[in-house]
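Troubleshooting: if your tokenizer reports a length mismatch, compare against these two reference records.
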Amino acid sequence: MPLVNIIGVRIEINGPVSRTQFNNPLFTELPAGTYTYTIAYGDDTTPACIKTGTFDILPSGIPDPVNFVVATTAYVCPEEDGSISLTGITGSADTDFTFEVYQDGDVIQTGTITADQAASGLFVISGLPLGTYQVQIAQNQTAVNTCVGLIASPFVEAIIVEPAGGCGLFVPNIFTPNGDNSNDTFFIRNLPANSKLVITNRWGKQVFSSNNYQNNWTGDDVTDGVYYYQLVVEGERYTGWVEVMRGN
């Protein structure tokens, strides 16, 4: 753009970014694109001279690195679909990405990550069973840099495994409802909906019951001690004992 070195000059540019400077014709760190400029000499209300025009800043030819992070190891039971969460997706702004998921060297899933999804900080690839995967994302940067084409990230390993506690029904034999927000309810892991639960004391008196137990028995209505449960899950009956221990 033209350089002007006159005291009392205001220079304004508009394009991918907009800036205004006074008595300084040097603009730095401008992104590539087409700009318009206005040069005005005089005061803000009655400039004596105005000149306008356009100029272009061409792309540098240096690609923006493409990368991402797999958030955590995912956990899922065998009969369920799992997912992989991608965070920290980087590349050229305002440009979509593609992703590929590999298993044993084969591509098993592909798709698009929009620029908005990448900018949100989290993208989830779903519909994956237990297993070990390699994930790669890529971005065509030609639109923002004519000297650059497809830029791909390194491969990142993602693992979907079963929960540490397993996936089957698990009935504990103790819980500690002492208000510390840890093990405060009789929590039956992997409990299906509409499961029936009856709790009795040692003399057979019912102290709690539910036709659709929601893991919400706190033992508030009983003293510390051993109690007996009858649990019906999808037509199958389980019996056993559980200890309420507050430790007070």
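Reference record two:
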Amino acid sequence: MNMRAARLTKPSYASPASPSVPASPARIFALAARPFCTPAAEKDALQQDGATAEARASRQGGQDASWHDAAPLVDMHLHLDWYGDPGAFARGLSARGAGCLGCTVEPCGYETLTSLVAGVERVHPALGLHPWYMGEELLLLRKLDAFCQLAQKTRFIGEVGLDFGKAHRESAERQRAAFARVCEAVQPGSVMSIHSVRSASAVLDVLEASGRLADCTCIFHWFSGTSKELARAREAGCFFSVGPFMLKSRRGREYARQIPAAQLLLETDLPECPGTPGDAAAHAALLEETRCAIAELKGL
């Protein structure tokens, strides 16, 4: 086996970490972003009070009766770097009390976005390596090296994962090996926004083997797996980000209804292509519309 192949094979893992996820700022941000659980009065405490605040947020469990007055508007899967002016868009969201996890598809996108939105409240760039953007072997190795270096500096990760849909099935094993290396590089206490098209079981297997299922906040973005896979992810303590695209299908609406409020987050998965003009006010309104649609499905 040559060195290139060796670097893409599944790494050996240490024993799984404790099932208790560290109360990192990333974890606390994700808990505070739950639209039906965390009252606004708790948000500052969550950001300042570490493990005590996390435990308090976790104990809240089910939906909060005052969610419509107090719940935050946080887009937990937004391709922020694909807007024409990511910095202006981020500042517009922040000025409206909203926030986002700014997912990227390649390490270079993360580096650029980080410089554009530095210091913007409630906006966190996320380091990504999307399965559609891995490239051929040599390019993938360079991207993986960059990802592994940058992962030591952040606990916000996304978009990462697997896609075994028809268009990407041929690269399934290469994707799996790359995702295993990604998971090995991710720090405990990280938040991970995860792509899992026709691959939720494989994603869960890699997360479990690497220890990330136990020591990170794993968020399935736009979950479209089977009901059995949904149950497995839910029971493992994973979160699920739900947005307008997911709510268009009957299965998506039913999954949104089934996901416990304490494990549900908002997303938009917008924009759909790079260079899109941004409207922060319209985006905040879309998040509110999505939140209300989910609340209606759940009878809140």
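Descriptive notes for reference record two:
- Confidence is low (pLDDT under 50) at residues 1-19, 39-65.
- The longest strand covers residues 156-163.
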